[in-house]
Amino acid sequence: MSITKDTLNKHLKDPAIFCCRRDKGTVIGAADLEDPTLFDDMVDAGLLTLSEDGLTIEQVLGSTLLTDVEALMPITASVLDKVNDAAGVPRQEKAREEASAAEAVIASSASGGNGMIHVKIDKLEGLSLDIPVGTSLGSVIHGTASAAPAGQKKIIRTLLKKHIKITDVEISNKTAIENGKIFIDGDIVKKAVGEDALCISMALDVIYPDKRHVYTDTIMDVCPIATKVEGELGEGVTKVVDGVVFMLTGVDEDGVQIHEFGSSEGYLDEKMYFGHPGCADEGDIIIRCHAVIKRLTGMSRPGPFAAHTCEDFIIQAVRDELKKYEGTVIREERCEDLRRKGNPRIVLVKEIMGQGAMHDNVLCPIEPCGVAGGQKNVDLGNVPIVLTPNQVRDGSIHALTCIGPATKEMTRHYIREPLVEGLAQDEELDLIGVIFVGSPQVNDEKLWVSERLGSLLESLDIDGCIITTEGFGNNHIDFIQHIGQAGKRGIPVVGVSFCAYQGQLVVGNPYADAMVEENMDKGGFENDVAGCSCVTKEVAIRAIQMLKNKMAGVAVLPALKKWNNDVINENNALVGLPDMELLDNGTLH
């Protein structure tokens, strides 16, 4: 990263290092020099070795290069037409006749199949280095001793998720788990409604994978069954049920669906995008929990929250049985919070709903994906909250939002968020955290919260970020503000959102130049299919690659004036993904 004139004046006595490749005849100025504040990290990462023969910034300003010079190479007298006098620094009259035997210039590089660039050194027999893709090459390596390699893992904490297979569910006269089957006491709903006075009644039934052509009221949430058996959220051991999920539906006393921008009542097999991160998978058994709340409370925070609270009471009874159940573990998922020192420092920013009407989320409950013990982001002022990747993957978010079904990220989405998984596992990046920031209703509050996010991004000293948002319209105002807060601080940023036709951005700024589309509806609309147009694995792959390109200075072509899915398919082809299959008028195939 080249430096400004102001930065240059503060570092005249520091070593002069080229930030990028420079050609013969270049007259050296601030734009040619690397920021000295980055040298320590570069040295630690093995990307830079300072030379005793290297000159200082004040000695090289205005000098002309006599030969082509590569990036991150200390500037010595041998490549300059002149050296400026500097107080206390002896003037070097001529270059050394021959280089030290330990000095070697990188001669060739090639991309390897492991996502690294393999570099061979000519003059040091047998020495080779592996450097992350996107790293500037061409630095001079001095000495035979090398620093710790970039990307070396330092594990901070570990989370083990044990997936327990469940093959059947029965509404019964007891709550238990036996031989791979969940039993739920049918009378538990009478106790559950006592958890919140706004909940009038609840009902439970079981929907099997081959019986999904059944009418359902609007889908408020899909929640996995998971429980802590050791440690707190983000560490220790968590049991997760595979094969069964809870689905919350709801209406008020007058039969009005609990929804905001569109609702998903209808035949279940047509109203959920099975297999997407927030949804039930193709073979899942669904425990439907239907809530009826007091009239006229569906469009305020307390009403939907009452339905979630009462459902959580039922799920907790199953969690308590899961803690004791020693069933077959069909797979173990090892998740690590770690640092990859020397790799680009990245954060994921998740903008979540916080308009304060029915829009809310519960952060950091006691149990994975639970409600009890958590705090609502609206009550916290929607300010940015930093979680570790493991905390997100351990169910630290319970979704309460009632936005349009297709763009809603339900509770199950967060425990297996594709961007968290992709960034955490990418060996070329250092994911330092996941930031959740609410979207207030009032514009002045939006700006205030976004400024707090900007200050946080700056203090974290990151090299890049991805910013996502669920829904569209009102929260796009915050979304673009967040991108601007990163961009004006020189942080490469990629935005991820549903826009397409219906959700086209109505605001923008110069930094919103790398955007990834989530839409999966053929017409580009919110199609009322739950979990359809959200972050998927394919979206995450495109977003991560776009961020890498942007950090490396690779040009991101401007978007077309109107949404065109051919652009998405071309990008998918570039990263080895198949074409995206869109829903035709909201109809699942």
From TrEMBL:
GO molecular function: D-proline reductase activity
Protein origin, superkingdom: Bacteria
InterPro entries, per database record: Asparaginase/glutaminase-like, D_pro_red_PrdA, Gly_reductase_pB_sua/b
Signal peptide (residue range): none
Protein name as annotated: Proline reductase
Native organism: Megasphaera cerevisiae DSM 20462
Organism phylogeny: Bacteria, Bacillati, Bacillota, Negativicutes, Veillonellales
